[in-house]
Amino acid sequence: MTKRPGHAHSTSEPILMQTFDATDIDKEYQFYDEEAARVSQKIDEELKREWVRRKDAQRRQVKVMLLGQAESGKSTLQKQFQLYYAHHALDHERPLWRPVVYFNILKAVRMILDELDHELNNLSIDDSVEGRAVAHSLAPLGDLNEEFSRLRTKLMPLVSMEDSLASELSGGVAVTGGRTGVYVRAGWQALVTPLSPNRSRALPGTGGLSPAVAQVTSLASRTLIAVQNEVDELWKHPAVRILLNNRRIRLDESAPFFLDSIKRVAQPDYLPSTADLLNVRLQTLGVAEHSFDIELCGSRYNWLMYDVGGARGQRHAWVPYFDDATAIIFLAPISAFDQYLEEDPRTNRVDDSLQLFTAICSNKLLKNSHLVLMLNKTDLLRKKLEAGVKVRKYITSYGDRPNTYADVSEYFRAHFIQVHRRHDISRRALYVHFTSMLDIRATQDIIVNVGEAIIRSHIAKTGLA
């Protein structure tokens, strides 16, 4: 009989099956169980160590918010902190401020020319006491139209670059309703180089060097060098001085510093000095984060400082950072008693600061935050009072009090302290300092005292030894 094809193992011979010892199987499974348990335990221990590390790092993180209206000095204070705790990072950023310095000068020149046109064209129809006084002072100078027309023609190539320079620096960001050409800080530092340790960083901000920024900066530099004599002539002209002294021309606070330094700035190898960095003016948009490492009593703490836009339309951006803020440093420019908000010309800037400080003191999210008040720009306050500017003209409640620095500064201090006593929901201590952000030595003494006080308060709350 023919044999059918079968399975590969089909055979008439018996197949011997391999036998297994149950004891060996148990030992092998036991080995795998022990190994899995050992690996699992190792992972758990590593996760626990990582959690402890993160918890410790978080406890050593000090979050400080710089609050106050626009142009109160927040960005200058941030640079003072950076100068003291991370000066190498500031040195690294120094070349990046060249175009911002140029922009400050371009804006100042444009504002002088615009105000000159307005004043000279309207002087004959201004019948006010002040108008007649200015006309009387300008009369000995003769006809100024031809002279200023020549300067305007010479300076037009420089002034015409203001908007393009501002646009390139701000990455095309603009403020709705803002003035044409106003520079808005929107992570411009991050456009230049990748971030490095201890370096300031804006949120958000990525990218590399922009050829357009480099090109417009180079053009601004060459143009400024070519017309530096005309800029100097305009700034020192007797008519400009008369209008400035009579407060008919109002410039940004940084303008006189840079116009006085025009010969130094208008050099091919110009590199901004520390004084330049502190005087430069730009408008902050959004929230910029800056990081510093501070050592105290042998321990290192990571200081995160948040510089925020202070204009009314930007204050809503502050709130997400309130919840876990270690401290608030509130800056109030008491020199601004004779100024009004750009976004609301009816509101006095000191009144706005008092209203804003009231909101900060009464905010429940900030009830556990250390509170520091800096009554800022005392140097400018002294200059205005010495020039004869009367506080009662702008703040009627000041009454007949002496128009001296001691009396005026104490008047403002008392008002802010009263706001704190009435509205602070947690009845915390208030630390008050009179400051001038441009005075490096005095400001850094305050920075050390404020920094140590904030960290000691943080240590007490978190239980760090």
Account of the 3D structure:
With 465 residues, the chain is α/β, with parallel strands linked by helices. Helices cover 49% and strands 11% of the residues. The strands form two sheets. A seven-stranded mixed sheet has the order 3-5-6-1-7-8-9, sandwiched between helices. A two-stranded parallel ribbon has the order 2-4. Residues 1-12, 175-188 and 191-209 have low confidence and may be disordered.
| Distance from first to last alpha carbon | 97 Å
Helix content: 40-55%
Number of strands: 9
What are the low-pLDDT stretches, counting only 5+ consecutive residues below 50? Answer: 1-12, 175-188, 191-209
The helix/strand class is alpha/beta
Shape: globular
Q: Compute the gyration radius: what is it?
A: 32 Å
Report the total helices. 17
Reading the helices and strands in chain order gives HEHHHHHHEEHHHHHHEEEEHEHHEH
Q: Summarize model confidence as the mean pLDDT.
A: 83
How much of the residues is beta strand, in percent? 5-15%
Main sheet makeup: 7 strands, mixed
What is the spatial order of strands in the main beta sheet? 3-5-6-1-7-8-9
What are its keywords?
single chain; 465 residues; alpha/beta; seven-stranded mixed sheet; 9 strands; 49% helix; disordered N terminus
Secondary structure elements and their pairing?
Elements lengths: L21 H38 L1 E7 L6 H12 L1 H7 L4 H25 L6 H10 L6 H15 L2 H8 L14 E2 L15 E3 L7 H16 L1 H9 L1 H8 L9 H6 L1 H4 L8 H6 L3 E2 L2 E10 L2 E10 L18 E7 L15 H13 L8 E7 L1 H9 L18 H19 L6 E5 L5 H23 L3
Parallel strand pairs: 1-6, 1-7, 2-4, 7-8, 8-9
Antiparallel strand pairs: 3-5, 5-6
